[in-house]
Structure formats: C-alpha cells, structure tokens
C-alpha cells in the first residue's frame, strides 16, 4: 500500500500514476529488474546530510551520488551519506530505505539528478519494498518541486 502521505499528494495533485506490485526487493537495481523497468527510469532515493541537515538525492538507479560534486553545487556544503539510524524516524509511514522522492512531505529538500528530467517517465518506491509508482516525469517535477543538479556518476 502506498505511503499515506504519498497517496494524498498524488490524489490531491490530480497526478496520473500507476502502481506495480512486485515481490519484496531491497536494492533499486533489483526492484527495477523485477518490475521490468529500465534501470535508467527507476529513481533511487539516497539520504544525505548537507551541513548536518537531512536531504534527499534522487538519481537513476544505475548511478552513484557524487558527494564532492553535490557539495560544490550546494555552495560548498559539507555533504555526507546519512546513516539509516539518522533518518529512519523522519519517514514514519515508510519502510526503511523505501521512501518516495518527495522531500517536502517530510520537511526536507530534494535534489534530483538532471538526467532524470530528460526521461518521459519516472518510477520509484511507494514507501515500501513491494510496490512501485510510475508517472510522467513532468508530473513528478510539478509535485516534488525538486532542485535539479548534476550530482551523480555511473556506477
């Protein structure tokens, strides 16, 4: 079942979307594979701390966050990966590691790798490890209002 916050956002925003149920997966790569989604279209959410504050970084599942580049893009901020213990409580309606890429629902900024903006569609975890949301990228951008940056590189 979709995270309640995500469900409300999508429905109140009148956003077109579909959901796909799949067997339980943990990694973005496995989720994309089992859901038959091109890995470049499946967005993974990586939690970071920028100058000590939690933020979401959203990128294609085949990419890895470039913390140095991200720090430069954020005006020289000290950027590091957040530990699960540091962000678990920030997503009370989600399973750990399956948070959807809508930072404003949880009081934090969201930074999206610009490569996703060139896709027609985006897919992402729905707040759990057994369901994926697919929607037009432009609708995601309209609802999430992310900051677009070049912040990742191929794994």
From TrEMBL:
A matching Pfam family: tRNA_edit
Stretches assigned to the YbaK/aminoacyl-tRNA synthetase-associated domain: 22-143
InterPro entries (alphabetical): YbaK/aa-tRNA-synt-asso_dom_sf, YbaK/aa-tRNA-synth-assoc-dom
The protein's name: YbaK/EbsC family protein
Organism listed in the record: Lysobacter arenosi
